[in-house]
Amino acid sequence: MAEPSKDSLLKALTSRLADFEASIRSEKIGTVIEVGDGIAKVSGLSEVKAGEMVDFGKNVFGVALNLEESMVGIMILGDYLEIKEGDTVKSTGRILSVPVGKGIVGRVVNPLGEPVDGKGAIKEEDFYPIEKIAPRVLTRQPVNTPLQTGIKPIDSMIPIGRGQRELIIGDRQTGKTALAIDTIINQHDQNVICVYVAIGQKESKVAKLVAKLQDAGAMGYTTVVLAGASDPAALSFLAPFAGCAMGEYFMDKGKDVLVIYDDLSKHAVAYRQISLLLRRPPSREAYPGDIFYLHSRLLERAAKMNKENGGGSLTALPIIETQAGDISAYIPTNVISITDGQIYLESDLFYQGIRPAVNVGLSVSRVGSAAQVKAMKKVAGKLRLDVAQYRELAAFAQFGSDLDDATKQQLERGKRVIEILKQGQYEPLPVGQQIAILYAVVNGHLDDVEVVKIKTLEKKFYDHIKGKKILAELVKDGFTDKTEKELQGLIKEVKELLS
User: Fold this and answer.
1) From residue 160, how far is each of 57, 79, 449 by CA, in Å?
2) What is the pLDDT of residue 176?
3) For a Cys staple, 283 with which of 122, 289, 376, 474, CB 3.0–4.6 Å?
4) How far is CA 57 from CA 22, 61, 85, in A?
């Protein structure tokens, strides 16, 4: 093949030079003066913004957190062992954002939105900043639509509404995560997008949860954001904000979203670690002074938007782990004061076999019956009273043997109520079935059934009423004379089947 002549090469070069335009590009750069434990201190970067991403090269990024006179404190988002003193750092001009869109639904991602489930790249539709000002009062509307958890004691006595922030609090191994996972499973026909944020969790535990969600068909509407126990503290710190941003995308589209933060105790510890390394002054229990603001600015992003602003909602279920049941510790009291109520799970109840181990006396929902269907509101009033009276009388009855008939009857009914409120894990119940069985127990229809046979009767009752029109009628119209008579007839039929 003949080589090109000098003339043709010269011609090609001349035409290229004719099209060449010189452009000037300025970059803000700095120099690493200290690095260690996931934190870098950098001089220069004079125009960097708080929360801005910076590039260390070698595919390692960081986020500017401390803006001081002589240097910038940066949290490193990758392997800090790659970075050396004297390295050059560039500003990116981009506030830390995560990819959002339908592509992340059904996936397991890290807090930067990168897939960790081995199912290939994610097709994002947009990028949302992880920090965002919470919706203002005038853009919100009152919480009035129930978010059904499928768990009897919660849907009846501590109801959660769409757009609410309800804290799940308790010691380790009391069923906090199980309660959250049941709530996700129960959303399969409720048109709710779910985001489960695992903060500092064992990856083996999260793998089991993902497998459980897949078996229940819940991964089709769920995203799992994973900051594992072996990941740097920076990722644990970012995880809830990233999960919230992913949920906000759907809220802005007018959809209902449920975000679970599991758990904010580990999140606070990660933030404490980062703050102490950045030499921020410590406060109570060595937490930084803005630890309250950290959680309040996250949880205030949960809202039910009004029609002019899309009408979507974001419901937050933060989880807090207590030590030896101490709900008056620093982080628990902080988060209790931010949220619209708490579900308190107690170790003693859990070991007695009362599961879910909800302590009805210490649990509260500040939205309350505004987020309940009419029929549930009717049975729940009696139920809370029965449970409270039983707890009081049971403590009193331990000391006295001579009890009057009214007290004995109250105790017997209480035993049956507690038995009905027990529920297996991964077995959420439709609200119609919950109303029917709770109506039966609080109105004394099960007083003549032995306590040991209550669970058997409950199972037979669900089988007997499954698919019947009365369930839909109860949810839609509440109790009428017709539905009440029909329900009493169904209860009688099941009791006859049992005997």
Assistant:
1) 46, 41, 32
2) 96
3) 289
4) 25, 7, 13
Tokens for 422, please give them.
Answer: 């027990």
Q: Per residue in 27-74, pLDDT tens? A: 789 999 999 999 999 998 888 999 999 999 888 999 999 999 999 999
Question: What residues contact 351, with CB distance under 8 A and at least 6 apart?
Answer: none
pLDDT beyond 70 at 104: yes
Tokens found for residue 424: 């297996």
Tokens of 77: 């988002």
Q: Pick the catalytic residue from 94, 107, 366, 384.
A: 366
280 is catalytic: no
CA distances from 453 to 126, 336, 420, 459, 498 (A): 55, 39, 11, 10, 9
Cα angle value 357/358/362 (rounded, 5°): 135
Q: Which amino acid is at 319?
A: I
Distance CA 463, CA 460 (A): 5
**pLDDT of 406 over the 60 cut:** yes
